[in-house]
Write a structure and sequence with these properties.
By secondary structure, the protein is mainly α. The protein is built from eleven helices and no strands. 72% of the residues lie in helices and 0% in strands. Helix 8 runs antiparallel to helix 9. 26% of the residues are buried.
């Protein structure tokens, strides 16, 4: 695969990018054909839960969280001070996001907010309330994680850029739900927004998984199917 190699994409990450593109293309083709069959439509509908896009996105985030959690727990045993414990915060964020993909926690919070608004104001405006209830706390949590885990990223500017790009894409894509609410009466605009939003979230998940793998490899952990990790001063050795 010359293209992935030219971009520096590890071969164990390529299938995730392929799955992203395949789900997007399948959804587009099915939509252009007029969604002729109910089962495949439900299976790849980007606006539904409990289907392939949801499971794929949840799996990406879960793998990132699980990998970081195992590595952080092991590093915590050897670490001195609070940095070791702090490493568990980032995998906790990943695992919560994975759970949210399957359990739709953000949508539940939005409904709770709408009911509270109805009781307080005597009316309810159905809109993307969950965006304002979840995206700012997520952004603050990520900033805190980044500050506490700063020593882990020392000398790894490329990885900082990858994580920043992945989380930025994830947050912006989630925030686009505001646009979805604004164009809800314009079918073409609604479909376009939905495609951009869900595609961005899937691609962000793959980018974050890639960054996660590269982070643990940069600290000496490597996978049997890959070449040994790059030698970085201060990195611990290990294998998985």
């Amino acid at each position: 695969m010359p293209a992935p190699r030219a971009l520096g994409i590890p071969r164990y990450i390529v299938p995730f990018f392929v799955a992203d593109i395949a789900l997007i293309v399948f959804y587009l083709v099915n939509m252009l054909l007029g969604q002729p069959y109910e089962f495949p439509t439900q299976l790849v509908d980007l606006d539904r839960e409990a289907n392939l896009p949801t499971w794929h996105a949840a799996a990406q985030l879960y793998l990132s969280g699980a990998l970081l959690a195992v590595w952080a727990a092991d590093r915590r045993v050897r670490a001195e001070g609070k940095v070791g414990w702090a490493l568990l915060l980032l995998p906790a964020v990943f695992l919560f996001l994975s759970l949210d993909e399957t359990a739709s926690i953000h949508e539940w919070l939005g409904r709770v907010g709408e009911r509270a608004e109805a009781r307080l104001l005597g009316r309810s405006v159905h809109g993307p309330l969950w965006v304002f209830m979840t995206v700012p706390p997520l952004a603050v949590s990520l900033w805190i994680c980044g500050r506490i885990a700063k020593p882990v990223f020392a000398g790894r500017r490329r990885l900082v850029t990858m994580f920043a790009a992945g989380f930025s894409l994830l947050i912006v894509s989630a925030g686009l739900d505001i646009v979805q609410w604004a164009v809800r009466d314009i079918p073409a605009a609604l479909q376009t927004e939905l495609l951009i939003e869900e595609s961005g979230e899937m691609l962000a998940g793959t980018l974050l998984l890639w960054a996660t793998c590269e982070l643990v490899r940069s600290h000496g952990v490597w996978f049997a199917s890959t070449s040994p990790p790059p030698q970085i001063p201060g990195a611990s050795s290990g294998a998985t």
